[in-house]
Write a structure and sequence with these properties.
60% helix; elongated; 187 residues; mainly alpha; two-stranded antiparallel sheet
């Protein structure tokens, strides 16, 4: 279909079964037509559904071309590569290569994030040490802001117990609780 459209008098992309030519660039005649059809559909839906924002045709075209480029990058990475023995990878080898590549990228991201979080916060260290001493001094009972009460045999009701000494450090304790939710393996 792509060859017939580009070099002969083929009908071109079918609106009901749109497909990109991933071997061609975003500006190939076939892909340009597909992007044009998608652009028309976006504009039609925007008008029909009364989207609260308006964007120019050039904006949407750029977004669609960018999405195509990302799709093509993923597709290209999933194509079988030539092995050391000169043959093509099997589907299982392609899958394993992609999984290994993704795992390596995630590992680097985790290491970078951890390094950024630990190295960048050296000025926060005294504050965290003070908070740690505070929590240890208060103990488990000092951190509890709830007191249990049994209303009946089935339901346990928790009431907030406002301790006067706690009001002065409530912000600091909230910081600890928030950090625990953000990074649960920190403590």
């Amino acid at each position: 279909d792509v060859y017939a459209y580009e070099y002969e008098d083929g009908p071109g992309p079918n609106c009901k079964h749109l497909a990109f030519d991933l071997k061609g660039g975003p500006k190939s005649p076939w892909n340009d037509k597909v992007i044009g059809l998608l652009l028309e559909e976006l504009q039609r839906r925007g008008d029909q559904e009364s989207w609260p924002f308006r964007r120019s045709e050039a904006y949407f075209k750029e977004v669609l071309q960018d999405r195509y480029k990302r799709l093509r990058t993923v597709w290209m990475a999933a194509q079988p590569k030539v092995t050391a023995k000169g043959g093509l990878e099997t589907p299982e080898e392609v899958e394993q290569r992609l999984i290994t590549k993704k795992d390596e990228a995630l590992k680097v991201t985790r290491q970078t994030t951890r390094r950024k979080n630990t190295d960048g916060n050296k000025e926060d260290l005294p504050a965290w040490q003070w908070l740690q001493r505070l929590v240890r001094t208060l103990g488990e009972g000092g951190m509890s802001s709830e007191e249990s009460d049994v209303k009946n045999d089935i339901e346990t009701v928790l009431r907030v117990k406002n301790m006067t000494w706690r009001r002065a450090i409530e912000r600091e304790l909230d910081i600890i609780n928030h950090q625990r939710m953000v990074d649960d393996d920190i403590f």
